[in-house]
Amino acid sequence: MAGEKKGLHLLDFWVSPFGQRCRIALAEKNLAYEPLEQDLSNKSDLLLRANPVHKKIPVFLHDGRPICESLAILHYLDEAFPETPALLPSDAHARAHARLWADYADRKVFECGTRLWRLKEGGEPQAQARREMVEALRTLEAELGDKAYLAGEAFGFLDLAVVPFTAWFLAYERLGEFSVEEVCPRLVAWARRCGERESVARSLHPPEKVYEFVGYLKNKYGDK
Question: What residue stretches are annotated with the GST C-terminal domain (predicted)?
């Protein structure tokens, strides 16, 4: 993007789990950047120019050149800054495995969560979304197993890709009327471990604040 200033910039929205995973990754790599908070109800010219196809955040700007989609941004950070701590594992099979599970979280956890707040409360469609959410969380817990982290014994790409969704657990519980800790205690313990990392603690917001935002979404966009 000609004319943009040099350096690293992240077009983001405070509560976006996809933006948060980029913030965590940048912190893990000790890369200094300028956050550019976006108003998604009145999208900036910069955002529309940087991501003309999807017109959404996050967008990472490296010397004015845009990289769109959060998982693509994480891959780019490893490739563009090889001197920083790697996010993805070095083994090709392990990298493919991590990408598969990150995609699973996007497709299952986020999609079911969206249906929970969007669908009318008390109906069978919302009940089905609750059942699918519980199944998705249990599937993630099974992948975690007895490991300290989803990535293994050390915090890695898969953890930082999935952990932003944990700030939404309270909203999922209240909308779906279930307890994440009761159905997935090891996953909750994992979330607490991740939350002790400075990169995660600085990037996520309190669950009550996230729940308030979900209430706003439900009131504005949910089925009546």
Answer: 91-213
DSSP 197: S
Does residue 28 sit in the same domain as residue 50? yes
Domain tally for the chain?
Answer: 2
Find the Cα–Cα–Cα–Cα dihedral 120, 191, 73, 140, rounded to 10°. Answer: -70
Q: CA-CA distances (angstroms) from residue 37 to 42, 66, 74, 121?
A: 12, 16, 19, 32
Q: Are 207 and 169 in contact (CB under 8 A)?
A: yes
Residue pair 144/189 in contact (Cβ under 8 Å)? The answer is no
Quote the tokens at residue 149: 């982290």
Q: How far does Cα 118 stand from its chain's mean position? A: 19
Q: Within this chain, do residues 165 and 217 fall inside the same structural domain, yes or no? A: yes
Residue 103 sits in the same domain as residue 61: no
User: Rounded to the nearest 5 degrees, what angle is found at the Cα of 82, between the Cα atoms of 79 and 85?
Assistant: 110
Encoding tokens for residue 88?
């993805």
**How confident is the prediction along the chain (224 residues), in pLDDT tens digits per residue?**
544 668 999 999 999 999 999 999 999 999 999 999 999 999 999 999 999 999 999 999 999 999 999 999 999 999 999 999 999 999 999 999 999 999 999 999 999 999 999 999 889 999 999 999 999 999 999 999 999 999 999 999 999 999 999 999 999 999 999 999 999 999 999 999 999 999 999 999 999 999 999 999 999 999 97
Query: What residues make up the domain containing 160?
Result: 92-221
Is 136 in the same domain as 206? yes
Give the length of the chain: 224
Look up the pTM and report it: 0.95
- Give the DSSP letter of residue 148: S
